[in-house]
Automatic annotation (TrEMBL):
Residues 64-245 form the IclR-ED domain. GO terms for molecular function: DNA binding; DNA-binding transcription factor activity. This is Helix-turn-helix domain-containing protein. One of its GO terms (biological process) is negative regulation of DNA-templated transcription. Residues 10-70 form the HTH iclR-type domain. Keywords: DNA-binding, Transcription, Transcription regulation. It comes from the Bacteria. It comes from Streptomyces telluris. The keyword Transcription applies.
Length: 245
């Protein structure tokens, strides 16, 4: 990382992250050969990485197949990391109040990842994004833009430096929008990730810290949908405030 906080990807770190995600996505575990195909690396290199991850509890092995171990969870406990905890019943209630589907989302590196959803989405092809926790580009989603806006300033600068290498126009547009997002605590996406989707994100907080985002979505049809999402967000914010009192 440079003096300006610039972050660059590292091939070995990327491979470790891909291995852990692949193992997490397969309840029955994955073999070294399968992992080698996933990361596009020689099996011998992957074997070394997998062995080290298993030795430190990041992976568990059973009959030659590897699944995610307990170490990531333990590290979160040690760090006191706050991950938004909203039950399925609560998400369904928030969706009912808003009158739209609701997605609970967090930032993972340079991506936004949906943890869970409440309500039924009127665009069925979007369901796997939440149900399979698919990563979405930060600057192309309402949640990602909100979460980036409330990331620590030094870390945000480093992330933007990295993102600018691939999407400088999106970074420039986000920088212009940043003061308004922070002031309103609302972020929008009008077709940024999907031309058919309007989305609006509001923060999930633990005290003063933004730990996640709640995303309201609707099929994009014009200005009327923006107003509908505004009203839905107002109802949701009022409901959340009432529950805290």
């Amino acid at each position: 990382m440079s003096e300006h906080g610039r972050r660059r990807r590292h091939r070995t770190v990327d491979r470790v992250a891909w291995i852990l995600e692949a193992a997490a996505r397969e309840p029955g575990g994955v073999t070294v050969a399968e992992l080698a195909r996933t990361v596009g690396a020689p099996a011998s290199s992957v074997q070394d990485l997998v062995g080290g991850l298993a030795a430190t509890g990041f992976l568990l092995e059973r009959h030659g197949r590897f699944r995610l171990g307990p170490a990531p969870h333990v590290l979160n406990l040690i760090a006191g990391r706050v991950v938004p905890q909203i039950s399925q019943a609560e998400l369904n209630e928030l969706s009912r109040v808003a009158g739209t589907p609701v997605l609970l989302t967090v930032r993972v590196g340079l991506d936004a990842v949906h943890l869970a959803r409440g309500g039924e989405d009127e665009i069925p092809r979007l369901l796997p994004l939440a149900d399979e926790h698919m990563a979405r580009p930060l600057l192309r989603t309402a949640a990602g833009r909100l979460l980036l806006a409330f990331t620590d300033e030094a870390e945000r600068q480093g992330l933007l430096d990295e993102l600018a290498r691939h999407d400088p126009e999106a970074v420039a547009e986000f920088r212009r929008a940043l003061p308004a997002i922070r002031a309103s605590r609302i972020s929008r996406s009008e077709g940024l990730a999907d031309p058919e989707v309007s989305a609006l994100a509001i923060p999930v907080t633990d005290g003063p810290v933004v730990t996640g985002a709640l995303v309201l979505t609707h099929r994009r049809r014009g200005r009327s949908e923006r107003l509908r999402l505004d009203r839905a967000a107002a109802r949701l914010l009022a409901h959340i405030q009432e529950r805290r009192m």
